[in-house]
Design brief:
12 helices, about 75% helix
Length: about 200
């Protein structure tokens, strides 16, 4: 940390805020996957390490940029890696309840709900997307109303049926033993469905 501080003093472009600003600019302008990957990694690091960077991130409308990026990704390996990092970034920001209201956009609910449905078999993405969706709908009435629509409730209920292990079913316990993460996902999803029904 001391060494990083010294480098930042010598070169202001190494300061977390400056790196965050540069990363957001890169996301807006770049079409190259390697540059986008580097930018989202920078955003994840800055939002994980600094509440001020989280606030600045929301202030400049970065959630909209990231939701748009999420909507363009597919299931290819490079895109899945970008998805995971972007979701971790949004997860970092969503930990600050005072920022949640500005994280919700007109597209956020639909985009994250799509990820929950499409990536229910990829635990890292599925769990983080569920946490983000749950936090957003609990803090935004418009988003709650949108997610409470019958077609979205059907989607969530279908996902719940698919991911809930049946008695004696070991399909959902991966080689890494992610049973506890799966149980956590199922618990969050059940809680979300119950909340949306109210």
């Amino acid at each position: 940390v001391v060494a990083a501080t010294r480098r930042a003093i010598k070169n202001p472009s190494h300061v977390l805020g400056a790196r965050t600003k540069a990363a957001l600019h890169e996301l807006r302008t770049s079409k190259r996957l390697t540059e986008i990957m580097e930018a989202v990694r920078t955003l994840e690091t800055s939002t994980r390490l600094s509440k001020n960077c989280c606030a600045a991130f929301v202030e400049v409308g970065a959630p909209s940029i990231l939701y748009e990026l999420l909507g363009t990704c597919n299931r290819s390996l490079p895109h899945v890696e970008i998805l995971h990092i972007v979701l971790l970034t949004l997860h970092n920001v969503s930990k600050h309840s005072n920022l949640l209201g500005r994280m919700a956009t007109s597209k956020s609910g639909e985009v994250v709900l799509d990820l929950v449905q499409m990536f229910r078999d990829k635990e890292d993405i599925f769990l983080v997307a569920l946490i983000i969706l749950s936090r957003l709908v609990r803090n935004n009435k418009k988003l709650k109303d949108a997610c409470s629509r019958s077609e979205n409730m059907r989607r969530l209920t279908h996902v719940l049926r698919k991911v809930s292990p049946k008695d004696g079913d070991i399909r959902f316990v991966s080689a890494k033993g992610n049973a506890s993460r799966r149980r956590q996902s199922v618990k969050i999803l059940r809680g979300l469905i119950t909340f949306l029904k109210d």
